[in-house]
Write a structure and sequence with these properties.
It is built from 18 helices and no strands. With 368 residues, it is mostly helical. It is globular.
């Protein structure tokens, strides 16, 4: 009972807002009379599609990692030192059953939905999906137990992720353009993974809903939704630069190279989407279309970033300009003006950057 309060109660209390948002997305936005058909369609969608299933498994793996990291963080807290005397004396079956109950209670939401998916997939004769989900969830339940056991036996050791991170820091010097990517991977992983999960679903839905033959404009409209999902990451980029890289303006770098760093940074940020798009469309989209996907995506995000060099542009005004640019881009795409849109975005972005970069002053609220 005490362990349940320490781990399970604290976990759900700390993440109550996230669980509420997920619950609202899966149950709150759907009318009651359509709830069953909505979830049946969703489950049949990923049990009958390999790409969609891989994305769902990735989401479950991320949630499982969140559970594991929470337990490890709880064990590492100074006020939790007494747990080593409590859990460290357990042996054999009692030890493993205790860790299993703790981890099971945290991972239960994913297991509940996957159990429903297994039943529906079995009924639809999708045996491959059934076997994949069952084996995957067994791994998600068993592997963390050895992590917890190792932590109890070696309380002073550094986690594998931290050791890998420290080794990379010793081996590689991060270039300027990679600092924000590194920040997202370390301290913004939740928002990054949520964004990538949403964009993966958008790409799958766009390609699946597209009627044959292949229509470039339809794919570009879906790509605009993918870019729209990145707006928060772009907005937070300004705050990161203001707080962590304010002295970079003193570096002896020409303006064009600073702009090129921004282009490269957003290209790397969007690299998972580009790879996924190539996998989904390589049979129907030629090299020029693939180049258009990359050019338009990077140009749009860079232009949104440059807007943030204007003083007094708060979050509400920023999103207002983002929506205006989306509407303009939509009309140009429908008018087949793809490359004119890319050129226009680049010219506008570089013009703003050249005029505002050295004049920009961070808001006092961000630097204090």
């Amino acid at each position: 009972m005490a362990l349940s309060k320490i781990f399970t109660g604290s976990f759900y209390a700390k993440n109550a807002a996230i669980f509420f948002l997920v619950f609202y997305f899966f149950f709150g936005i759907v009318p009651g009379n359509m709830l069953l058909s909505y979830h049946l369609t969703l489950i049949r969608g990923f049990t009958g599609n390999v790409d969609f299933l891989c994305l769902v498994l990735l989401g479950w793996a991320v949630y499982n990692a969140k559970c594991v990291l929470f337990i490890l963080k709880t064990l590492s807290a100074r006020e939790s030192l007494y747990l080593y005397a409590t859990l460290g004396v357990l042996e054999g079956r009692e030890k493993w059953s205790t860790w299993f109950r703790i981890h099971f209670s945290l991972y239960l939401p994913a297991l509940t939905y996957s159990a429903a998916a297994v039943c529906i997939a079995w009924n639809d004769k999708h045996i491959g999906a059934v076997v994949t989900i069952v084996l995957f969830q067994l791994l998600m339940l068993i592997l963390p137990l050895f992590v917890y056991d190792r932590k109890i036996k070696n309380p002073g050791t550094t986690s594998l992720f931290i050791r890998w991170q420290q080794k990379l820091n010793r081996l590689f010097t991060k270039p300027l353009w990679a600092y924000y990517i590194y920040e997202l991977l370390n301290n913004g992983s939740r928002s990054l993974f949520i964004t990538k999960g949403v964009t993966g679903l958008i790409i799958i839905a766009t390609y699946s809903l597209m009627e044959q033959p292949y229509e470039l404009r339809f794919m570009l409209v879906g790509l605009l939704l993918v870019l729209l999902a990145h707006t928060v990451l772009v907005f937070n980029h300004r705050q990161f630069d203001d707080l962590k890289l304010s002295m970079s303006i003193q570096l002896p770098l020409p303006l064009w190279k600073r702009y090129a760093h921004t282009l490269l940074g957003y290209f790397v940020l969007l690299l998972p989407e580009f790879i996924f798009l190539v996998v989904r469309t390589y049979q129907v989209a030629g090299p020029l279309d693939q180049l258009l996907f990359i050019s338009l995506s990077v140009s749009m995000l860079v232009m949104w970033r440059m807007l943030l060099y204007f003083p007094g542009l708060d979050q509400d005004k920023y999103f207002r300009w983002v929506l205006i640019s989306i509407v303009v881009a939509l009309f140009m795409i429908l008018g087949y003006l793809y490359w004119y849109l890319v050129i226009g975005l680049q010219v506008l972005a570089f013009t703003i950057f050249s005029l505002r970069y050295y004049k920009y002053e961070p808001p006092l609220a961000e630097v204090q």
